[in-house]
Amino acid sequence: MEDGSERLRWGVRRRLEFIDFRLFWDGRFNRSDLATTFGISAQQASADIGHYEKIAAANLRYDRAEKAYIRTDDFAPAFIGETIERYLLQLVAIENRWMRPGDTWFDAIPPIEVLTLGRRPTDPAVLLRVLDAIRKHQEIDIDYASLTGSVQPSRTIAPHALAHSAGRWYVRSWSRDHNDFRDYNLNRIAKVIDHRPASVDVSLDYEWAQKINLVIRPNPGLPPERQAAVASEHAMTDGKLIRPCRLSLSFYLMSEYNLDVEPGVLKPEKQQIVLHNRDEVTQARASSRQMSIEALARASTGGE
Amino acid sequence: MEDGSERLRWGVRRRLEFIDFRLFWDGRFNRSDLATTFGISAQQASADIGHYEKIAAANLRYDRAEKAYIRTDDFAPAFIGETIERYLLQLVAIENRWMRPGDTWFDAIPPIEVLTLGRRPTDPAVLLRVLDAIRKHQEIDIDYASLTGSVQPSRTIAPHALAHSAGRWYVRSWSRDHNDFRDYNLNRIAKVIDHRPASVDVSLDYEWAQKINLVIRPNPGLPPERQAAVASEHAMTDGKLIRPCRLSLSFYLMSEYNLDVEPGVLKPEKQQIVLHNRDEVTQARASSRQMSIEALARASTGGE
DNA sequence: TTATCGCGTCCAGTTACTTGACGCGATCAG
DNA sequence: CTGATCGCGTCAAGTAACTGGACGCGATAA
Questions:
Q1: Are residues B162 and A258, on separate chains, in Cβ contact within 8 Å?
Q2: Counting runs of H as helices and runs of E as strands, what totals does chain B give?
Q3: Which end of chain B is less crowded, N or C, counting CB atoms within 10 A of the terminal residue's CB?
């Protein structure tokens, strides 16, 4: 099957992709679908359909009774290729109200249910300032929603990276108040007040820079056939999964999968995978954190 | 600030959105950025920039030294609006290799780290057949990767919905072998072999159709200020969160947040929220499941 | 039957976009 | 300082995309 590699103008290509998309997800589409979603005339839509037929004639046929173009059995995507995950993500985003259906190409949203506890949306203004600070190596003064909920004096941080885990966004930053590196929850930053050039050397954040291999295995407490299934699901080789991971982030992954719980506390079904080198990880993390703090202390006494 | 509500052709509008996007995320863009991502000439790109300036002149200025258009301090998005979550999702998707950077408008990917254990990608052919079966009320014969990994005879299911939780996709289906409704892991369906009209009445899936309110509270074992923080993070009112949820899916949400663990087993930090009406939920789930099974049994003895 | 609707197509006119050419200001190597 | 380079802006002329209007065709519904 061709991949639609002809030289097409960007807009035309997108419309042919749309045809591909609708055939895949709905099995059908209309000329008017094409015309309304792109705001083009019916004539132009006809021309586009003709264009698509030239490229992938076997993919569709017009059904007069249905008044629609119908996907054939030998349909093979000519444009959208292997980008299925992308559209699945869009479905999740729609259900979570992160996206409006109109932002996507879905017509009938498939009957899906998305289950999360949700979280507060990200403030664009905050994200913009944080990204700027990362890019331009600035330190920023922020209003941070403290644990107690009480009003706190503003804090000064020098962010240098974003991290995402288990649905949360973290801002990896140097903290002026503590003179060490920490994670700040992006959604808890209420406001970015001011900014100035940062003085800290972010390469001293060893806990971020250094990686370690998490060695993950199926929980040996599970019946052997369940262990095999778990191994298969996580695409393990030789019954184990090696996952490289920044030291500072290892905590979140361990937390998400209950890897930080002592063996035997939870039923094996609640802890399908276990971390084989847990002690090594916690120890490496603690020591790199200590090294980082000492290096920062030396730098500040020496430099200022 | 205007929202770019002029009547613009679809392609032009997308390009102005692109300008908005790059200004937001990178703080800058080039004429050639515009020209190359959309495959248009430099002249046309100039025209588009002029067009954008007419709509949101205060958003950008040209810096001759930088050879780029730079975001001003009073920048306010004129096109991309509040669709920030969408682009954050794209960043996650890129890091997970679900999307290629070229599928997005990002130039320099911000320094982000995405932490998951990953999973096998979804097979487009399988998804397509499953969606068809849902839409057309068909039953399908599938090759299902069993827990033991051994080859199993094919199973016959009649799917009627998709569900997403904790990174997994489930296919809610009637099972011919068991004459009840179950969840099938989408990634475990290796192949869809055949299909025919389904005979089962999906409205008998009470465990799916019926919803219950999960009453979620901060773990009382946490210090009060931590409880307040948890309540705030989950946007609780009066210290509790009411989350309506299909009975069949309640299990996954409980599993994801360790709500299904007896109080006292885990440290409170590992179980920041607790389910106040756990007994009610498990009981409702069991009874609706039983009702469903009985209804199906009556239908099959009476009907066939 | 008649009315309606969606598709396909021929037509002429408009807009978007192209290639080609030239000038301007900033940066850089010699 | 000078000439080369690069990215931007613009004028001009031609092409491709797209629009409006009009007409016929087949299927469906009143």
A1: no
A2: 9, 12
A3: C
Which structure tokens are listed for B11? 């392609």
Could you read off the pLDDT of B272-295 as tens digits, one per residue? 999 999 999 999 999 999 999 999
Buried b (16+ CB within 10 A) or exposed e, A217-234: bbbebbeeebbbbbbbbb
Q: Which residue of B has its CA nearest to A242?
A: B117
Residues B160 and B212 in one domain: no
Do A256 and A191 share a domain, yes or no? no
- In this complex, the residue of A39, A91, A241 whose CB is nearest that of residue B10 is A39
B223 and B151 in one domain? no
Helix (H) or strand (E) holding B200, with range, is none
Distance in Å, residue B135 CA to nucleotide D22 C1' = 39
If you measure CA to CA, which chain A residue comes closest to B94?
Answer: A86
* Domain co-membership, B153 together with B187: yes
- Asked whether the beta carbons of residue B124 and residue A89 sit closer than 8 angstroms, the reply is no
Distance CA B11, CA A189 (A): 36
Q: Is B64 on the interface with A (CB under 8 A)?
A: no
Instruction: Mark which of A200, A227, A242 sits at the end of a domain.
Output: A200
* Residue A275 lies inside a defined structural domain of this protein: yes
Q: Is A74 on the interface with B (CB under 8 A)?
A: no
The pair of three-digit structure tokens given for residue B128, joined into one six-digit string: 């397509």
Spacing of A64 CA from D26 C1' in Å: 8
Separation of alpha carbons A240 and A242, rounded Å: 7
Determine the distance between A154 (CA) and C22 (C1') in angstroms. Answer: 56
Task: Name the β-bridge partners of A276.
Answer: none
Asked if the Cβ–Cβ distance from B114 to A164 is below 8 Å, we say yes
pLDDT of residue A167: 82
Region B222-242 average pLDDT = 88
Q: Could you tell me which residue, B66 or A163, shows the higher pLDDT?
A: A163
* Cβ neighbour number for residue B13 with a 10 Å cutoff: 16
CB atoms within 10 A of CB A300: 12
Element (H, E) at B215: strand B211-218
User: What pairs with residue B146 in β-bridges?
Assistant: none
For B208, the token pair is 């799916």
State pTM to two decimals. 0.86
Structural domain including B144 reads: 124-200
